[in-house]
Amino acid sequence: MRVGFIGLGSQGGPMARRIAEGGYSTTLWARRAASLEPFADTPAATADSPAALAQRSDLVCLCVVGDDDVREVVTGDNGILAGLAPGSIIAVHSTVHPDTCRELTELTAPHQVSVIDAPVSGGGAAAAAGRLLVMVGGPTEAVERARPVFATYADPIVHLGDVGTGQAAKLLNNLLFTANLATAMNTLTLGKALGITPDRLGEVITHGTANSFALGRITSAGGTVERLAHHAGDLLRKDVGLVARLAESAGVDPGVVLHAADTTLAMMDRSR
Q1: 238 has catalytic annotation
Q2: Which position among 52, 53, 89, 90 has the lowest Cβ density within 10 Å, counted as fewest Cβ atoms?
Q3: Ramachandran region of residue 112, left (φ > 0), alpha (ψ -120 to 50) or beta?
Q4: pLDDT tens digits, residue range 7-53?
Q5: Of 170, 217, 237, 238, which is the active-site residue?
């Protein structure tokens, strides 16, 4: 399996490194040459366009930011679809709308190219340690062919169903995380009113049955969401908005989890 990787940011960079150091023939492309410099000590090669990368790849992994970025890299001038051979696979690690992956499936089918959506959770540190969570949607045959590559940076790898289900699962994960931030902040504020400092209450709860990843992020940031808002506020707003629209299209009331997520966004001076 020859692997191409596009999107060498804080999460994609460690993923690409794990693939290259895992023994796979790996080709990288980036808009900025500076993004490729950290890989000079790896066996990875570089290409001068997405299409050129695709010509040297059986599996192309995308870890770019949003829906428009995914579409451009796949279908734009010198995009990867122009270079992929029949039987190749595109894995969308970006968090995007499920319909984007379904649209790409329709576009790539005449080329006999498979699309799997494979958003990830855990961050760069988890990727470097080989323990990212990958949520996968797509045809079983393509997923199983890609699984050994994913295993270089991920454990577990969960196949959820058809194309789009991986993205839906990631959006639901991010919705609940955003909602948990609000309930954690509210609990710490209530504790302070009852005479318990946020740091001490946080220490207790992180060792108790009410512990959550969201609470840990708040306590490590000094008991506020300001740091999270700076680094992740816009992404959380995007994801909460996406899942709210999905629920509306399905005719489903998201219930309290969406209200709590909206409360968190308000704490971050954002709204969907």
Answers
A1: no
A2: 52
A3: left
A4: 999 999 999 999 999 999 999 999 999 999 999 999 999 999 999 99
A5: 170
